[in-house]
Amino acid sequence: MSSLGILMLVHTALHRAEQVARHWTASGCPVVIHVDQKVSDKVYSDFVTACADEPLIRFSDRHVCEWGGWGIVAASQSAAELMLEAFPDVHHVYLSSGACLPLRPVDELIDYLLDRPRVDFIESATTADVSWTIGGLDQERFTLRFPFSWRKNRKLFDAYVKFQRATGMRRRIPDGIMPHMGSQWWCLTRQTLSAVLQDPRRQTYDRYFRRVWIPDESYFQTLSRLYSTHIESRSLTLSKFDYQGRPHIYYDDHLQLLRRSDCFVARKAWSHADRLYQAFLTDQAGAMKPAEPNPGKIDRVFSKAVERRTRGRDGLYMQSRFPRHGSENGLTSFPYSVFQGFAELFEDFEQWLTETTGTRVHGHLFGPERAEFSGGETIINGALSDCAVLRDYNPTAFLSNLVWNTRGERQCFQFGPGDTQKINWFLARDKNAQISVITGAWAIPLFRSNLNFADIRTAAAHLQQVEAKQIEVLRSVWAKARIRSWSLADFVESPMEPLQLVIEEIGTVHASHLTEAPTMVDLSGFGKFLQNLKNQGMHPYMMGDFPTDDVFGTRIRPYRKPYLVQ
Amino acid sequence: MRLRRKRRLMRCLRKRRDLKSVADNTAKIKRSDILLMSVVRNEKIRLPYFLDYYRKLGINHFLFIDNDSDDGTGDYLSDQPDVSVWHTNASYKRATFGTDWSNYLLRKYAHDHWVLTVDPDEFFIYPFCDTRPIRALTDWLNGCAVRSFGTMLIDMYPQGPVDAETYHEGQDPFQIARWFDAGNYMITKNPDYGNLWIQGGPRARVFFRDNPAKAPALNKIPLVKWDRRYVYVSSTHSLLPRGLNQVYDEWGGEKASGALLHAKLINTLGDKAKEELQRGQHYRRSGEYRAYAEQLADKPVFWCDRSEKYINWRQLEILGLMSKGNWA
Predict the structure, then answer these.
(1) Which domain of life is it from (chain B) (predicted)?
(2) Is CATH 2.30.30 what the domain over B2-319 is classified as, yes or no?
(3) What's the Rg (C-alpha) of chain B?
(4) Whole-prediction pTM value?
(5) A362 and A411 Cβ atoms separated by less than 8 Å
(6) Tell me, what CATH number does A482's domain have?
(7) Is A319 part of a structural domain of the chain?
(8) Residues A304 and A435 in one domain
(9) Given an 8 Å threshold on Cβ–Cβ distance, is A319 in contact with B248?
């Protein structure tokens, strides 16, 4: 007979429980099984009969086990009492469930515990120190009453909690105990466990914990603190929880991860995971080398899952992630830059930008004819089409798709008042967008065009109106993008500093100075052109104050040497 | 909404007269069985691979409605031990495109079962589908108290013209149609039923580029823990009660979701389009099939150099076309 006794709480998949129980008894460990009262008598008696040939398996009194209720503690108590009484050689008692799977040879666990004869392995922390509580109930678990089931009567449960908070109703915690919480799967020494069970004040404690919320996570955790000489506050059972406090389930494909975890017992295994049961219950020899438990690798897999479920991938819109307005955590997945007026002012801006920054530079993605992808492509990453109708059917999807499909590679594109304006709010709200605007630059192509002046005047009026509206959006308090705007007059006066600033923020190049500037179009006569517009009764103001005498046009063509004010 | 649901239920009860049982093996359905529901018409060529695929996933029993096939579909299905077949020659359109029929059978046989409702050219992909049977998924959903599981329909297409390669019975259609569009899907929310409305993919890109509003919906909720009070509203795009359509997270997180690989765009499409156009029994006066028939004459090629070649579910998850959610 071994010095390790196993308590097993079972409510479903009884054949698996039997298999695991026999695995324990094969190494001489006695097993006391508690079967949930909710299991039908027929199933229960069949189960008992099936295990009848094994003298080391016993069955304890049955209780109804509800999640978060007292039943689980009561079940552990009666099973533990039976264990201590029926098997006097047992030194350590290990509480497990029917879905627990021993990962390492049982003898290793026995040896491990023999080396630590006085140690109680029970995760036990004060409420102030735990982070895993859900529903915001930590200290209040111990000071409020919980007569209603959280799963079945959520509304009553919440209402009663609220009521108690409002009225200041509190329970008194019995003298001498300090509430602790932790994993419900523990391994205690006979000394500690019997002290807890035979405590003269046990009735008081039981009465108190009966109305504590989730007492199975606090009853033994609190009371063992009273008697144990050496508490090692961790569970020997590997158990991972998702964001709602449900245990993660292990499947066949976790075999390697579990092997490498070096933990003694894992919870919980899917009952149909045949390969897992096969691997850990039968081919034990040499499956794992003796080592301290090291669940770090498996931890990462499961904490990633929790993060994916709660935060998700920024900028992804899909069938199971469609955030409400404001809950997006980033409207797009990667930073990108929007340039307005630059391509109008500089002759070879797109090429220059590509060479300077090494980013992917598109033309007017929201142009009226088509999405002008870089290099004149008609379809880019993710099979995104340049078709303007498709794009304008859902412009935000178009842009978030584009950024998602090319994530990892920074995208730049041109924008202007001639383009689809439906995207403005999205751009302004997106913290990944870097928007640089030279207001009024739309006048340059008009100025250089060969249109009738009446048409130019109409077009200018329209574009100015559109741009004014856009600037209003960009200046709104909701705008989260990094937005800069200059009037054309200001920009033309000293173009290098703003350029330097924008390029540096893109951050792909580390060169401290721009050595080569893009070529500015010839603006001589532009002041006159603006004056003509004014004379025709239109008031161009977006470009700032341009002198009519062409000082700019002549003055800035030979570039000043770029310098930067830090 | 309650009234709409009741009306649907009444409707499906009325339409049950259309259905005539051909092979009834429903007595074999055990309490925990996972079922599959499908409406078929002249799909004999697809069925062997279809049955094989879903048997391997762990479907225990198949419920088929044979809408007046004349290619031996009915006989083939009734020979299968794990299949129950009903025959009808009534109007597909007047049965709300078959939804009334399947609602009736679901109500009668699928109560309290997990049931997968798919067309014979749709192949269900879910996280870990290469290592875990479908029961692992449904057990996990049960544990999370989730009643429905969302997917997106992904149109698969071949590299050349659609009819260049001939599909043979029993063949994996994705040997021919291996390619898909990875990132051109457009989503809006349907305020009535709370489901998402997804459009895009190769059909929108090629067939509906001038009229994207008409492009077919790609959002599907095929896997449901059925209750006799539930109804599908339009195909498997949405259900009532509305809570079942909430298969997506609205606070930034990702719920677990899958995909339906759609093997429609292969050489069988041409015949199908012609036939369905003649019958005029499909949604929007078969507008979708009309577009196919018109454009198929030009031998359309869906493939482009930005098409993605299908490898496995992990690829889809990385591309953001499905998610593991908090299943690990």
Answers:
(1) Bacteria
(2) no
(3) 19
(4) 0.88
(5) yes
(6) 3.40.50
(7) no
(8) no
(9) yes
